[in-house]
Amino acid sequence: MKPQTINFEKKMKDHQIVGVSMATIEGACISKTDCFGFLEVGTNRRVEHDSIFHACSISKFFTSMLVMTLSEQGILDIDRNINEYLSSWKVPGNSLGIITLRHLLSHHSGIVDPEGSFSEILSMSDTPSMVDILEGKTPYCEIPIEVKYKPGSEFSYSDAGFCVIQLVIEDIMGESFEGVMEKYLFLPLQLKNSTFQLPASKDQFSCGHTKDGGLVTGEYPIYPYPAASGLWTTPTDVALLITEWMKAIKGESNLLSSVSAKEMIAPQFEKEWMGLGVFRDTHEKGLEVSSLGWGVGFQGMMVAYPYEEAGLVIMTNTDTGIHQLKGLIGEVYRAYY
């Protein structure tokens, strides 16, 4: 099945997807954008090219790019003990070894997310501090974060680890994570539709939907962990960041050097499938790099072939309850690649 032969209306109906937005990359440039369906079920608010979706854990790719950008400028060292950066909180009593940003970015820090932690925000007036979250003083994480095993020895996917990255950035920069992201990534790359905040007018924003096509509670899920899963954006903005990274690999970026860009996709801790903030795989096109987003009311995927300068970003406003690759996103991915 070729991309041009996909009957999106039928596929969306089959999978009960309310809205889809996509961006295709060829030659390290955005070659095409596609939009289907609606931002909110039961309305005439159609998905447009600038419609904003919740990125969920694709936020981690942006955070990794920010860390590498700050590293490029000598502000951070990804192999330095993070407790030397942290001032508002320290990794408690860790006798198993130091933790670095490299450990955190590759989910090898030894920090394990407590069961049932890191849910969406419980009240729009609830703005917990990152320190309180890490100390286990909020409903979002009721157990203090600690190191469970030797850093570098095992993989454990960790939202808490990216919360620690956020705090490192805020402590060392003396401003909010959102402000640092705006200054170092959003503004230089003109990512005009990327944000961590819902504005007063939400017309451009997609609501989240359940697997049966209904609106999720609250309509717009918010996560109080920007670095881990708080980003709202468009496939176009995600693709712009990917293309900048592809240019960096060739030494053609003002943001990152080729060395830093390639470090993101180098195998970490002898795991061929793990990079820095992204996952690695082999494909007939060569190295495949990906990030998946899955949260309340939304699912998405970014996939890139850095040395082929190709890629795809697809975002949907429906949580189907099944893995992305088993649903519409997987069908589109396989049709393209």
Question: Can you walk me through this structure?
Answer:
The chain is of the alpha+beta class and 337 residues long. Helix content is 27%, strand content 15%. The chain is built from 10 helices and 8 strands. It has helices spanning 8-15, 59-72, 101-105, 130-134, 159-173, 177-186, 226-229, 235-249, 258-264, 328-336, and strands at residues 19-26, 29-37, 53-54, 232-233, 279-283, 286-295, 298-305, 310-316. The chain has a 6-stranded antiparallel beta sheet, with helices on both faces. A two-stranded antiparallel sheet has the order 3-4. α2 crosses α6 and α8 crosses α9. The protein is globular. It starts with 7 loop residues before the first helix and ends with a helix. The mean pLDDT is 94.
